[in-house]
Automatic annotation (TrEMBL):
This is Uncharacterized protein. Belongs to the cytochrome P450 family. GO terms for molecular function: heme binding; iron ion binding; monooxygenase activity; oxidoreductase activity, acting on paired donors, with incorporation or reduction of molecular oxygen. Heme binds at residue 439. Coiled coil: none annotated. It comes from Chlorella variabilis (Green alga). The keyword DNA-binding does not apply.
Amino acid sequence: MELSALSEGLQALPLSLQLASGAAVIFLSLLILRVLSNAFPGAAPPVDEGLPFVGGLIKFSKGPLPLMTEMYAKHGEAFTIPLLHKKMTFLLGPHVSPHFFNATDDKMSQTEVYNFNVPTFGYGVVYDVDQRVRSEQFRFVADALRTAKLRTYVPAFKMEADDYFSKWGEEGVVDFMQAFSDLIILTASRTLLGREIRESMFKEVADLYHDLDDGMRPISVLFPYLPTEFHRRRDVAREALRGIFKKVIKARRDSGVKEDDILQVLIDSRYRNVYSGRATTDDEIAGLLIALLFAGQHTSSVTSSWTGYRMLSNPKWFAAAQEEQRRVVREHGDKLDMDVLNGMDTLHLNIQEALRMNPPLIMVMRLAKESFPVTTSQGRTYVVPKGHIVAASPTFSHRLPHVFKQPDEYQPDRFLPPREEDKPLPFSYLGFGGGRHGCMGQNFAYLQIKTIWSVLLRNFEFELLDPVPEPNYTSMVIMPKACRVRYRRKKLVA
Ligand code: HEM
């Protein structure tokens, strides 16, 4: 009786009011459903949204680190933040991480979460192809980065570093981040893109790379094709780079001359299980070169910079690295090859600890294609639902005090016996990720950073003019803010 009176009352309203009341009823129902499903996640990790529908975005807008800090304090190692119609589950720390890193791509997929890279890397490669093709393309990359090849890249690292630092004066002020970015694009050009580009097209390629890089901003993760000026310049730069790379590839194929660089390995690669076993196309090679530039450029220059800042603000460790160089010079003279670099344990520990404190990648992500259970350090089991975006965080996990003692202190010996804090649980140390998609360039990166710092330690002394910089969390790759360092040329006496 009351319902029919209500219905008659509604029908008496003008059509616009009827529609508005209908929309309000639908919205209220959705709101109630959303609040209820957030409040009772069942076996899934706790959901924290606050204001329904937009609360997650508001939390996220403060930055992922404040968000993780607040949510971890509230919910522990596993929790979910709704982002509009998507849900993002954070898994923080080694106890909840094995499935994230070990699962096959059909269970934990990268394609959907990393395909914002497609307009940067280009089409037909990496996140624009299905997983079978991608794994073959990554096999080509793995070939280019295997030990025997790495050995041949070290002279190029050394040559570029010697040349670059020879242009510094007797004394001056530099910003490590700026200097190492400039140097590493030179070494990357030589080892990755090849002699031809390094020697005759470097400036043009570096400028185009700059535009491509500038076109990848935090907003590009959500809207990679947003019609903005920086995306337009990105697209122009990608096409221009592709054109240059393709010319070089053609000239090299025509000449029949083989070089010792990553470009050559990619030119000589053939698919095995897809594309009827054909060779790589020039377009694919160009795309893979761009992807590798992106994987290695900022990550390596950021880590080289933090290694410097951390050693300089911990004089005991700077002195230990100098002492190691004295020993190495006594034993090997000026020779700096892969074996000599691999013997620099103290420098290695410094880089590893700098990367623990300041990893350039704040989050790595996957899409859960199937639900999976995780068990926290407290023994609580949750089931992460299929369809959630799942995130792990090197930045946050590296500061967990139950994994790394006094995590805010620079203690490179935490990786040595008897402490070996990264060892008891896999995925404690995530500087290079881990598991199925761990960094392919890890050894390349260590060799490159060790070469740079060997040349610096042997030829200069330094003084930090500013406090150790804060990380800039607004960039895609987390970089140190500006910091002035005074250098003075001084030969290390062995
Ligand atoms: C200090 C320098 C570097 C750091 C900190 C670093 C870090 C990482 C991390 C954390 C991942 C895992 C991403 C994920 O799980 O989603 C990764 C993947 C990767 N890195 Fe690096 N990286 C560095 C240098 C390099 C260099 C120099 C190269 C190549 C020359 C490279 C090539 C790759 C590739 C190809 C992958 C993808 C592996 C896969 O998905 O199977 N990286 N890197």
